[in-house]
Design the sequence.
């Protein structure tokens, strides 16, 4: 489509409005104050959609892969972030198999799913207010369309994370030779706390990881075989003997990219859950306040106070964010892990560095994922735009832990020098820290 043509643009807008109309559901996050489906999104894909509609952006089409490469470039999702999943566990399941795995790419606030031959590219963007927002990009040569399509996506993307929010998912399942999950076997949600041996069922995995076993790269002939366990194919450098890798932008499914993806999805979901909880609490508090005001003038002059119960809900939401930020429960590596691609380098190179050259994006990969275990997503719009009272609690709690005064065993994985490094990196690289963090320490 020519986005400069007013008639075509009108048709495009109409299609988008219709699509938006169809997403108005009655999910738990459509009620006030979240109003998910009714709220215009402002994630990176929404911005891309706007640029397309205004004719400010022309994407390049490539035979075989359509607009994939061009979209990834615009969304700053590196090709080396590619992970390949062959379980029939998602939207375009009929096209997914061990010979035609689905490729997933990600940047800091976008996720992209592509299957060879697929008519649509699946996208999700991270919106500071709404959490995950879902889109389909229709791969027509002449008339490509990008539409928000939450309704058909939330079916899975609001349940698999275990939290009732629009969410990102990574799963691990036992599959047969066609990629179909075997009934009667375990299904795992994967995040940075998942033990290595439970990860990547239904995924390809390339890169080195020593003696650590995982469930990737294998299919099973029967339920009995899957239940017996013991099949393991790891430390692969390439996948050319499994399927035609030339159809993909990269022949890899890098173990380090997968591990970062798993942390990132957990972090984004935790931020969204805390955001929704805080807004609901503040909404309830202000309704209670209004009710009081209409009953008595004296009370209306009283300082607005949250009830103890509401305060506790805010504290719990803050605590969950601090746990995810500081990698509480992260599974330990028992052997070093290394990329089969340039992912680790590309990822770390994007980090803001302090005067000693340190960044929250520096990877460790010997005993844990990151050298300085405080998530790089602390420096992201969805974190910075958390509701004020929640953000204040998060910063206060974070300071308690990394400031060194905390003796809660939950944070025992952080040594005194870890805490000091995180503190110093944040103070030099993170905007918007509370002024109290910068006051001289007693
Ligand atoms: C049948 C369930 C299901 C439906 C419906 C579904 N997805 Fe997913 N999606 C998944 C699963 C499961 C994953 C994780 C990869 C895997 O295990 O296949 C995933 C992963 C993704 C990812 C990669 C980021 C992430 O969350 O891991 C994107 C992007 C995505 N889906 C977009 C969409 C869009 C857009 C729609 C709607 C058009 C959609 N999905 C519908 C199940 C689903």
Sequence:
């Amino acid at each position: 489509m020519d986005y400069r043509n007013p008639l075509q643009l009108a048709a495009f807008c109409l299609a988008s409005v219709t699509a938006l109309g169809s997403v108005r559901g009655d999910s738990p996050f459509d009620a006030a104050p979240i109003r998910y489906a009714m709220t215009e999104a402002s994630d990176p894909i929404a911005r891309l959609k706007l640029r397309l509609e205004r004719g400010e952006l022309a994407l390049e089409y490539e035979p075989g892969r359509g607009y994939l490469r061009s979209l990834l470039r615009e969304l700053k999702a590196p090709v080396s972030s590619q992970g390949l999943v062959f379980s029939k566990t998602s939207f375009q399941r009929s096209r997914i198999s061990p010979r035609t795995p689905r490729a997933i790419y990600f940047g800091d606030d976008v996720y992209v799913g592509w299957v060879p031959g697929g008519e649509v590219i699946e996208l999700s963007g991270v919106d500071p207010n709404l959490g995950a927002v879902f889109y389909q990009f229709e791969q027509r040569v002449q008339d490509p369309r990008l539409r928000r399509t939450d309704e058909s996506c939330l079916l899975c993307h609001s349940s698999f994370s275990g939290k009732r929010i629009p969410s990102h998912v990574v799963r691990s399942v036992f599959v047969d030779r066609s990629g179909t999950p075997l009934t009667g076997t375990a299904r795992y949600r994967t995040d940075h706390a998942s033990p290595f041996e439970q990860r990547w069922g239904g995924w390809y995995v390339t890169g080195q990881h020593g003696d650590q076993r995982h469930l990737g790269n294998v299919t099973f002939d029967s339920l009995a075989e899957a239940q017996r366990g013991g099949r393991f194919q790891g430390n692969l450098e390439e996948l050319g003997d499994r399927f035609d890798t030339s159809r993909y932008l990269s022949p890899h499914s890098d173990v380090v990219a997968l591990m970062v993806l798993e942390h990132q999805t957990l972090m984004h979901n935790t931020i969204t859950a805390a955001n929704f909880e805080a807004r609901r609490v503040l909404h309830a508090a202000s309704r209670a306040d209004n009710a009081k005001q209409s009953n008595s003038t004296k009370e209306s002059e009283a300082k607005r106070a949250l009830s103890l119960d509401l305060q506790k809900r805010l504290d719990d939401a803050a605590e969950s964010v601090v746990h995810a930020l500081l990698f509480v429960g992260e599974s330990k590596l028992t052997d070093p892990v290394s990329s089969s691609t340039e992912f680790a380098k590309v990822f770390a190179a994007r980090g803001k560095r302090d005067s000693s050259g340190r960044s929250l994006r520096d990877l460790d990969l010997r005993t844990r994922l990151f050298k300085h275990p405080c998530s790089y997503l602390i420096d992201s719009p969805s974190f910075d735009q958390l509701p004020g009272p929640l953000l204040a609690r998060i910063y206060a709690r974070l300071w308690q832990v990394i400031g060194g005064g905390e003796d809660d065993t939950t944070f025992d994985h952080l040594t005194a020098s870890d805490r000091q490094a995180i503190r110093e990196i944040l103070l030099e690289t993170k905007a918007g820290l509370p002024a109290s963090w910068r006051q001289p320490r007693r």
Observations:
- The radius of gyration is 23 Å.
